[in-house]
Specification:
Number of strands: 11
Radius of gyration: 20 Å
Low-confidence stretches: 218-226
Mean pLDDT: 91
Largest sheet: 9 strands, mixed
Shape: elongated
Number of helices: 5
Structural class: alpha+beta
């Protein structure tokens, strides 16, 4: 019997930007179960539904274009799924699109290359001063940064993970910036670290992930059949 792989694009906003990636996975599992979708489950002692979110979103950052793949035992019309799901989701998670993709298409996690973010930061300097800071950051060959995680301090070259930073302009008492960061396995740039290096990571900063990009030529690792 033919099975089906659906790609769902969604937003994660409001108070839900403070829940963890694990909690988001649980939220989606509950929503898909409530909608009655025929989910594919993993094998083993504790079977789990086959749901794969392309890229974890750091806590405190909202997402405008999050992507995940859901695997179904029997095919369903995407329009029907789009009608069933919204009533099972909280207001802060909204469907953007649903499409069917080939079952054995390479993993989005393997194909991830970049993520784009927009940040809204308090305007503490002039626009020219901020642009000068951004230009100095981009001109550097390396910028070493420290991040503490799980009781350990990691030192890494932040500059190598940044493809571009651009000042969009001023919006009232805030500046808007666009950040394009690498998002590959083992090489992920964090927007809050970049803003900290620029000296603008202050209370009141708002960050949103607006776009994920894949390497469509990468035909590497594929999901196992079932």
């Amino acid at each position: 019997m033919r099975r089906q792989r659906l790609r769902i694009q969604f937003t994660k906003t409001g108070a839900l930007k403070y829940i963890s990636h694990l909690d988001l996975m649980r939220l989606w599992e509950r929503a898909l179960r409530r909608a009655g979708l025929p989910l594919v489950f993993s094998q083993g002692f504790n079977p789990q539904p086959k749901i794969i979110i392309a890229a974890a979103l750091p806590i405190g950052i909202s997402g405008r274009a999050e992507v995940m793949d859901v695997f179904l035992e029997t095919p369903m019309p995407t329009l029907e799924v789009a009608k069933m799901l919204p009533s099972c989701l909280p207001d802060e998670v909204r469907l953007v699109s649903i499409e069917e993709v080939p079952w054995d298409e390479p993993s989005l996690q393997v194909r991830m290359r970049t993520a784009e973010y927009e940040a809204r930061v308090p305007a503490e300097w002039t626009l020219s001063e901020l642009r000068k800071r951004v230009a100095t950051f981009l001109a550097a060959s390396e910028i070493w940064h420290e991040r503490r995680s799980k009781g350990k301090t990691k030192r890494y070259d932040l500059r190598s993970l940044v493809e571009d930073v651009r000042v969009i302009g001023r919006e009232g008492e805030h500046f808007r910036l666009s950040l394009r960061l690498k998002h590959e396995p083992g090489a992920t740039g964090r927007p809050d670290d970049v803003l900290a290096a620029l000296g603008v990571m202050k209370p009141g900063v708002e960050i949103e992930r607006v776009r994920l990009e894949w390497d469509i030529e990468n035909a590497g690792s594929k999901f196992p059949d079932g």
